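User: Hi! I'm working on a homework problem where we have to compare a predicted structure to a textbook description. Could you give me the structure for the chain below?
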Amino acid sequence: MQSIMDWISNLAVQLIDAIGLYGIFIGMVLESACIPIPSEVILLSGGLAAANGTITWQEVVIAGVLGNVLGSIIAYQVGALGGRKILNKYGKYVFFRSSHLDQAEKWFTRYGAMSVFFTRNLPFIRTFISLPAGIAKMKFSTFLLYTFLGCIPWNIALAYAGYKWGANADVLERYMHPISYAVAIVVVGLFAYWLLSRKRTRV
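Assistant: Happy to help. Predicted structure tokens:
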């Protein structure tokens, strides 16, 4: 499985090298449509391209966010039209893991619409949260707004990291998963604070 993921990651990098911003956009569409292309690889590579002067890191963010939104819409529609049945039947062809959807469903069941916003900054879950939103028939305009806003911090953080430390991209990529989890801890902490604040105002 790891060799397959490495192959997918290398393919994503080659796509960005070949067609620049379009490659970033396509990669992020696929990632948000539940095809496991690591967004860390895509955005860090985009940031590195920005450091080399071929594009700007702001353009990387815009391409990443737009790709995320379109891919999330696709996943939402899959959830609304058939959800688990479609994924159980065809998911093996895109290396789908049901355990990741299980995690996303737990978040959505527990926290509802706001989970669409907060989980955009959590590794793995961010890729699959659109599916339970679609299955639950979440109001589409709300889904779209929370998806757009939730994707912005993740894209900015990774694109800027690739841009700022482009010369050390290999080292940075090696430590991206710990960094991703650190970001996740911060996001969960903010989410917990938001929930506590909300409960206090109701008392």
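For your comparison, note the following. Residues 51 and 163 are 5 Å apart (CA to CA). Residues 176-202 form the longest helix (27 residues). Good luck with the assignment!
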